[in-house]
Amino acid sequence: MAPRQVVVVGAGPGGLRTVEQLRKKGYDGALTVVGDEPHAPYDRPALSKQVLLGKAEPTALALRGAEQLAALGADFRLGRRAVSLDVPEARLELDDGDTLRFDALVLATGCGARRLQIGAGLAGVHYLRSLDDAVAVRAALATARRIVVVGGGFIGCEVAAAARALGLEVTLVEAAAAPLAPILGGRVGELVTQLHVERGVTVRSGTGVAGIDGGTRVESVRLSDGSEVAADVVVLGVGTQPSTDWLAGSGLTLDNGVLCDRHCSAGTGVFAVGDVARWYNPLFDEVMRIEHWTNAAEQAAVVAANVQAYLAGGAGAPLADYAPVPYFWSDQYDTRIQFAGRTRAGDDVHLLPPAGDGRERVALYGREERLVGALAMNSPRSLLRYRQAIGARASWDSTLDELAGVGA
Amino acid sequence: MQIHIDLGKCCGYGNCVLAAPDVFALDDVSNLAVALVTEPDEALRPAIDRAIDECPTEAITTVA
Ligand SMILES: Cc1cc2nc3c(=O)[nH]c(=O)nc-3n(C[C@H](O)[C@H](O)[C@H](O)COP(=O)(O)OP(=O)(O)OC[C@H]3O[C@@H](n4cnc5c(N)ncnc54)[C@H](O)[C@@H]3O)c2cc1C
Ligand code: SF4
Predict the structure, then answer these.
(1) Could you confirm whether domain B2-63 is CATH 3.40.50.300?
(2) Which residues of B touch A297 (CB under 8 A)?
(3) Is the ipTM of this complex over 0.85?
(4) Which residues of B are less than 8 Å from A327 in CB distance?
């Protein structure tokens, strides 16, 4: 029998963790990791935080040292892109013409920044997804006086916070009623607005962007309400797109990510992990795609176990479910925002009164009699409690009753 | 077995507390992880391994 070969496409945390978990679980066959960035796996969340603030050198972000990587006994093909996949033939083609055969394949290609037509080709207009992007944004901020950040999602909010800390004049533009409101609801959005306004950011919510103007360099941003904001730098944080273009024609189902079953399996012997995977989460009875760091790490453990089970038992092997409580954090100024669970428009939102010195805020989200989400600002221990409760399928009423009992 | 938490790496996500509540907690003041027992019993090994696996920052290590 030929030696076994597992191929992982994407060298982010999802890919890296999958490889580590495979080795940890005793897989001793061949392992190849294909990653199109030239860098070894690195700490992406730091890009919009420590890197922009100048608190971490871009070269110091590697998740593992060279020795640790070497100890994995994997063939890291960095700077190489996978360009096509043939599932029935179990063959992967790379951009240098090389083809890899595999017994099991793990897709961990993450997302790219969603790009807009407007502003294309103008100097001073940036996106932020990769290490190279962050180096460019950091250099741009060093000489700029005024920045317009388009998009009040997590990345936009963090860029605004970092730019403010660096002393720039900052305008944050969000099409919805408030930054983060589409994700966390209007009341939490107001708290986030407050956070930024207190620090001197001009928050322009409820307006889109009509254009980005300038000669060769950006000079101003035109908003859909007709007003204009001068800018030396513009950062566009307007969403992401799963990196699946190259999988067209592979036979896998692509629908806002690689569609997977409850075991993160996308097809026979093919699994997906991290930002690119859209899988059925039985805990929420929902097909979801989660763009958070901890998800990539946790999902990798399940995917590695399932790859092992598949290699041992073939197509009918029993596989493990992946049923996590999604979790993320964001740092803005000295506020840590954490969210656990899953929320959507129409959920009940219960905002608890401020605690601690007023900086601790907690909001709970309920739907169909269940506690489905919890948000905490500067209150990691309450978040932990509710995260556990969400995992245990706590009822919404009993959660609220308990709070009423303690007078909150 | 001894537990070491690198507080320079720990960001207080609390995954370790969920994985091994008898071993880890979040500190009241710093909000970072603390070990509740310095030399935990071998019986706690599986839970501790899970905590190490699930810590997103690789802050936890053990020495035999
Ligand atoms: C600026 C920024 C800040 C963030 N902050 C936070 C935070 O505070 N908290 C949080 O929870 N999450 C945060 N995230 C999200 C988090 O970084 C992601 O969820 C995580 O990186 C996902 O890991 P992944 O391995 O799935 O994908 P990625 O990290 O995206 O890795 C995928 C890799 O695959 C490569 N690739 C793509 N296509 C191919 C191909 N065809 N061939 C070969 N390689 C390919 C990509 O270039 C990339 O290197 C942040 C993200 C960004 C961009
Ligand atoms: S899981 Fe890791 S980062 Fe999180 S609290 Fe524990 S030690 Fe700290």
Answers:
(1) no
(2) 54, 56
(3) no
(4) 13
